[in-house]
Specification:
- With 479 residues, the protein is an alpha/beta fold.
- It is built from 19 helices and 19 strands.
- The chain folds into 2 domains: 3-168, Cobalamin-binding domain (Rossmann fold, 3-Layer(aba) Sandwich); 201-474, Alpha-Beta Horseshoe (pyruvate-formate lyase- activating enzyme).
- It has helices at residues 24-34, 44-47, 56-63, 78-91, 102-106, 108-112, 126-137, 144-151, 194-197, 242-249, 259-271, 288-299, 316-325, 341-348, 357-369, 387-402, 419-422, 436-443, 459-474, and strands at 3-7, 10-11, 16-17, 39-43, 67-71, 96-100, 119-121, 157-162, 165-168, 222-225, 228-229, 255-256, 276-279, 305-310, 331-337, 373-380, 406-411, 429-431, 452-454.
- Strands 4-1-5-6-7-8-9 form a 7-stranded mixed beta sheet, with helices on both faces. Strands 10-13-14-15-16-17 form a 6-stranded parallel beta sheet.
- Helix 4 (78-91) crosses helix 18.
Length: 479
């Protein structure tokens, strides 16, 4: 094997987190495969558990990959990924270890200084990973100086070029205009145990299932698909916001992949037994490209259940488009985050998010009138939030639940490289994690992470608010 890509969820005896893979693993594997390199994706959560751990050293010994790529996308996987890198180096010292993803990109230099990590790819990884793997596969006949010259040409690569010297190559954004056939975002043939990933098991749930009604929203036979990249918004707590995209990816604006690539991928998904499509990419409030994509899927008679994350309030024309192109049990997910319009405006910071409670309720009415389901996310512990703001969130959440919609209320995270992470004082909070080591220490425990501390709300107040709100939501009867 030339390259092995590994997704490591956060596995604990009582729960597993991050069971969904970053969507980019498929396109990374596809890029290697197109170069004629042998590649497999290994999802440790599918084949391993604390009770029955997977024998990774034996797998590595059998396949002897020259390069092992580890995904450190969401920070919840930090301790698992660092431990995994050390295990790989102990059992297969010949293998080079490369790490990529959002969190890896944020902490690229610190991560590259880890003894078990040879390379980090920051930003988009498709060209860089294929170049790196090709170089390593034919590096043996070349002297070290020649290898160093070739590594210097790999875009987005971070690596040690001498004792205590970390080199960061130039940052290049992934080209959105690839010719047809050069990109695929769905390659189940390259995933080990793929049938378990797209199965009737419910492996992925971001809805709070302590609220009984939310269990109706859980889904199986699902593909998490991302038909583009980037974000135009600057939410304070998000590590994938516009300013982060520019800083870590050199991406100035979001883009969609071409429609034919998307249709081809989803035709393959339907043949593979995928029933539910989860889309968490919504950069345009007008949703013009989605209407085009949905029409193309309808033309091919592809009819999935859709779970769609709305980054802005859905308008009636979009609701009608979803209603006509997807099954009746489809679900729109909205994230106003706060019940206070003022708190929302100070944290989401874009005109498209400057909506009132009534705007939100009117939008939900259009979803209900179309006979569709909706799920609404609220946060707790946002910057500038106090007890009166939490009370406003609770009032709005209960009102929406009585309308027949489902609710999740969760503590706000502090993503690496988010605005609040970079400048917590500007948001009048303290970030509980400030470094890679901080995230590694926290994610090694079973504790619930409260990412921010403020003078206006204590961790105990936030936890009590969530628990009490969950109890109140559970008392409301309804569908």
């Amino acid at each position: 094997m030339d390259c092995l890509l590994i997704h490591a969820p956060r596995q604990r005896p009582r729960f597993n987190q991050i069971m969904v893979m970053p969507a980019g693993l498929f396109s990374l594997a596809h890029g290697l495969d197109r170069r004629g390199l042998s590649v497999r994706i290994l999802h440790l959560g599918l084949i391993s558990s604390p009770e029955r751990p997977f024998d990774l050293p034996a797998y590595l010994k059998r396949h002897r990959p020259a390069l092992v790529g580890l995904s450190l996308h969401w920070f919840y996987s930090t301790s698992e990924v660092l431990a995994l890198a050390e295990e790989i180096k102990r059992s297969s010292p010949h293998a080079r270890v490369v790490v990529g993803g959002y969190t890896a990109s944020c902490f690229a230099e610190t991560l590259c200084a880890q003894p078990a990590v040879d390379y980090v790819i920051r930003g988009d990884g498709e060209p860089a990973l294929a170049d790196l793997c090709s170089i390593l596969m034919d590096a043996d006949p070349h002297p070290p100086a020649r290898l160093s010259e070739r590594l210097a040409e790999v875009p987005n690569l971070v690596y040690a070029s001498g004792p205590k010297r970390i080199r960061k190559n130039s940052l290049r954004c992934f080209d959105a205009d690839l010719p047809d056939g050069q990109l695929s975002l769905f390659r189940p043939d390259l995933l080990e145990a793929a049938s378990g990933y797209f199965s009737t098991s419910i492996l992925y749930k971001d809805f709070d299932d302590r609220i009984v009604s939310n269990r109706r929203d859980l889904y199986s036979n699902v593909l998490f698909y991302t038909p583009g990249r980037g974000c135009p918004f600057d939410c304070s707590f998000c590590g994938g916001s516009r300013r982060v995209q520019q800083r870590l990816f050199a991406r100035r604006k979001p883009f969609f992949f071409d429609t034919q690539t998307i249709v081809t991928d989803l035709q393959r998904a339907a043949r593979h037994g995928v029933k539910t499509l989860r889309l968490s990419f919504d950069p345009d409030p007008e949703r013009r490209r989605y209407r085009e994509i949905f029409a193309a899927l309808a033309k091919e008679k592809l009819r999935f259940r859709l779970v769609f994350d709305c980054w802005t309030l859905p308008r009636q024309d979009f609701v009608r488009s979803v209603q006509s192109c997807f099954t009746r049990d489809s679900l729109l997910v909205l994230s106003p985050d706060a019940g206070s319009a003022q708190i929302r405006a100070r944290n989401k910071r874009h005109p498209a998010h400057a909506f009132s409670d009534q705007d939100l309720l009117d939008s939900l009415e259009s979803v209900r009138d179309a006979g569709m389901g909706g799920h609404v996310f609220f946060g707790a512990g946002l910057p500038f939030e106090d007890a009166s703001d939490l009370a406003a969130t609770r009032r709005l959440a209960l009102m929406i639940r009585k309308m027949g919609f489902h609710i999740s209320v969760l503590p706000i995270d502090c993503d690496p490289c988010s605005a609040v992470f970079d400048d917590p004082r500007a948001f009048r909070v303290e970030a509980r994690a400030r470094s890679l080591d901080d995230y590694a220490r926290w994610t090694a425990t079973d504790r619930r992470f409260m990412g921010l501390a403020s003078d206006t709300l204590s961790e105990r107040q936030i936890a009590a608010f969530i628990d009490e709100t969950v109890a109140l939501l559970n008392r409301i009867p309804g569908p």
